[in-house]
Amino acid sequence: MIEARPPPCYPAAMSKSRVVVAMSGGVDSSVAAALLHQEGYEVVGITMRLWTEDDSEAPTHARRCCGVEDVDSARRVCQVLGVPHYVINYERQFQAQVVQPFVEEYRRGRTPIPCIACNQHLKFDALLKRALALDAAFVATGHYARVRPQPDGSYALLKGRDHNKDQSYFLYGMGQEELRRALFPVGELDKPQVRALARELGLPVADKPESMDICFIPDGDRRRFLAERLGANPGAIVDSSGQVLGEHAGVAFYTVGQRQGLGLATGRRTYVSRIEAASNTLVVGPEEELLAIGLLASQLRFVGGQPPDATQAVAARIRHRATEAPAWVRMIGPREAEVRFATPQRAVAPGQALVLYQGEQVLGGGVIEAALPAAKE
Questions:
Q1: CB 131 within 8 A of CB 20
Q2: Looking at 65, 78, 115, 215, which residue is catalytic?
Q3: Average pLDDT for residues 79-105, to the nearest whole number?
Q4: Region 194-220: what's the mean pLDDT?
Q5: What is each CA distance from 86 to 18, 35, 57, 119, in whole angstroms?
Q6: Phi-psi region of 351 (alpha: psi -120 to 50; beta: other; left: phi over 0)
Q7: In this structure, what is the dihedral angle of CA atoms 67, 73, 74, 78, given to the nearest 10 degrees?
């Protein structure tokens, strides 16, 4: 039997508190609610209605978020636990703060991460405010991450214990107030343990498939989704010297590092090395042109409020699944920085998140604005 308990960073005195659990209808948030309920928290399940479009013909794992099935799954879990469940409509905020910026960033030739915007604006802003209005002390989610109180009274954000499922990358924007109110009950568990707990506790979502990467694109066809909203805007594909090699369908359909779908016959592997949205141009080249010695980042936020010392090496992650690289951070503005890598990194894409770590701890992060090409060093 797997011992079901919240992480040890949750003092026993907290267990009588009311907590709003963001319930997506998936196994992670369901187990989060069950663990907190077992510990004596007064659990209130809330499903955030973010997107109404749904394809009833699509496979279960490919349906959009907040569909009828997801709401029903969350409701049935709450019935098993004997706790209240509510559905609250946040579609307007989701469109304005997540979907529209996502489309606009691609229009600009950048590669955004909508999950980060959703966590920042919806789960730990709009939902947190609703939780406080309901006299709840905390908001809990099914994220694989951990919060750890520090001796000085501050809070640290840590990676999830299961590094294969770690979602701390998507939470780097959380500040002290959000961390003080956040609970991540599955952060100490790995995915097989979460599944096993769901079966052990009789939750009807124990074997529910994983959700897709971008919840509002059911079939994963980002290009189709963007084409419906942006249309086609053909332009030139050129090499680094400016020689025209072909034509693209629109810069929104490509990202730095992409090799497939270019339609070029160059006789060698060719990748998107740069996107110049202002001139509607796609710059391509060999893999070595993807290497960068550093990057420029903006909109930086630090969990503890202060950036790392410029002489202190940190671990930088430039994509969710990227291997962390030793790096140094030099602030060049209130929320802007130049980051230099110990060794060149591949395919640094504007619009992606730069997240900085020190061991298991998230220091903070920001938005990548530009790569510093290795060839110009």
A1: yes
A2: 215
A3: 97
A4: 88
A5: 15, 19, 26, 19
A6: left
A7: 160
| CATH of residue 354 | 2.40.30.10
Residue 67 and residue 166 in one domain: yes
CB-CB contact of 253 with 277 (8 Å): no
Residue 78 annotated among the catalytic residues of the structure: no
Catalytically annotated residue among 65, 78, 115, 118: 118
Chain Cα centroid distance, residue 178? 16
d(CA 290, CA 27): 38
Q: How confident is the model at residue 212 (pLDDT cuts 50, 70, 90)?
A: low
Neighbours of 322 (CB within 10 A): 16
Which residues have CB under 8 Å from 313's CB, separation 6+?
326, 327, 328, 342
Pick the last residue of a domain from 261, 285, 309.
285
267 with 168, same domain: the answer is no
Higher pLDDT, 157 or 4: 157
Among 41, 45, 37, 44, smallest CA distance to 17 is for: 41
What CATH number corresponds to the domain at position 237?
A: 2.30.30.280
Residues 47 and 87 in one domain: yes
Q: Are the CB atoms for 264 and 243 separated by under 8 Å?
A: no
Is 66 in the active site?
no
Number of domains comprising the chain: 3
Domain assignment present for 53: yes
Using one digit for the tens of pLDDT, what is the confidence trace for 305-344?
Answer: 999 999 999 999 999 999 999 999 999 999 999 999 999 9
pTM: 0.91
